[in-house]
């Protein structure tokens, strides 16, 4: 069991460490990051209960509703809700990139516990595939969510609400698309999934770069770093 639990949580820790270390300026307090990870892990239990109830009652009857509502909207909304009420107004959320760190931590907390349950039920043979697909995809939804959280936090006009809406809607659409591919395409699904995952990684790494760039521009504007460091 120890091996299964380790295999289940290791990809999440590795991905969280990767995105945590991509912060070019002030690193976030480890305690805050761990707290977000734990909050995300705890979300697995209400999500499982709600999904089970909807399925048992026959309220979800199409691939679209299962992918975009029962998985995409439910899971991403709960992550968004946790971030908004535990991180968004916190004093440590003081850089554009911070939104990515906390959103990735929350997403990977969720993905890690979900992954452990899956491996306990199915065995360790699927560990590599799980790490490459569902765990990494959750991390990338978190990157996108956190990027727009950062934009909403630091933009100085009426676009705050717009970016907070984007921080929910875009991850829901990405998550729903991922699940829809798995549900709808029963044979040779990897021919669609591999390009989609490449797109997700491209999008996520682009958001990482943009978040750091925006923080650099903000610091330059406030004369906190030399122009040559841009």
From TrEMBL:
Protein name: Protease PrsW
Protein source organism: Bacillus taeanensis
UniProt enzyme class: hydrolase
A Pfam family: PrsW-protease
Transmembrane segments: 6-21, 33-55, 67-88, 100-121, 127-149, 161-183, 189-205
GO BP: proteolysis
InterPro entries with a match to the protein in the record: Peptidase_PrsW_arch/bac (IPR023596), PrsW (IPR026898)
Any GO molecular function: metallopeptidase activity
Membrane topology field: Multi-pass membrane protein
Documented EC number(s): 3.4.-.-
Protein keywords: Cell membrane, Hydrolase, Membrane, Metalloprotease, Protease, Transmembrane, Transmembrane helix
Chief location bin: membrane
